[in-house]
Amino acid sequence: QPIRWDIRWEFVVASLIVTWAMYGVLIWGWRTVLEGWREWLRIVDAARIWTISSLGSYIPGKVWSIAGMALMAQQRGVSGAAATGSAVIMQLISIATGGVIAIALVGAPLLDRAVGGWGTIAAMALAAGTFIGAVALTSPSLTRRIGFLLRRPDAIRPVEPSALAGALVANLVAWAGYGIALQLLAVGTLHGVELSWSTATGAFAASYVTGYVFVLLPAGLGVREFVMITILTPTIGPAPAAALAAVSRVVLTINQVGAALPFLLFRRQMRDIS
Q: Which of 115, 122, 234, 235 is 20 to 30 Å from 133 at the Cα level?
């Protein structure tokens, strides 16, 4: 099946802008979690920490983004417990909401086809487990017990329900925005290829969550593309699906590097912004 490229830069740039806007929404959600623990970060500091630590996803292991976020937040005066806990909670909520959205929008048959018949069960189990884990952290008694098990009673703080709700809303909005960004990217790169919002959002969410599960792969490389191709093929055909998955990977990398680059190049100037 031939691939007909039709590059329209206005749509590609719009896709980049929408993605960066969703980064801003997620940064707001992270700051909401921190504020629930009476911890504060300036917007510039939060944006710098979020964008730079996100580059850690390209290192196998998946823990480097969380570790980097926690370490840099501590350097800006946030307590270690709040810095680590907020990073973990945002990741848990991201996986949970992504799993639910994938099931709701692209449906069980497509997920099962993408992951060998177990897609729906795996997505539901992962979403339920991570969401329950995040909600459980609102319990003072549970977090106290976890702290005693770790022999650090004050290491784990209960999460404010309102802060958890803020993180949930931020992630739902972000998934919706990522779907729009993928739609714009399809229109801006491939001739005659259009995706519905539900298909684009579901495919992006399913591919992201599946790629995250494979912890040894940097940024889910290969797995994310396979899942996206499998989900999009019935709608746009195998060749355009493969092309869009490849372009999405390239643009996603440009997005993440581009968002972090100003903070890396102009570190001192950014820190001086009040």
A: 115
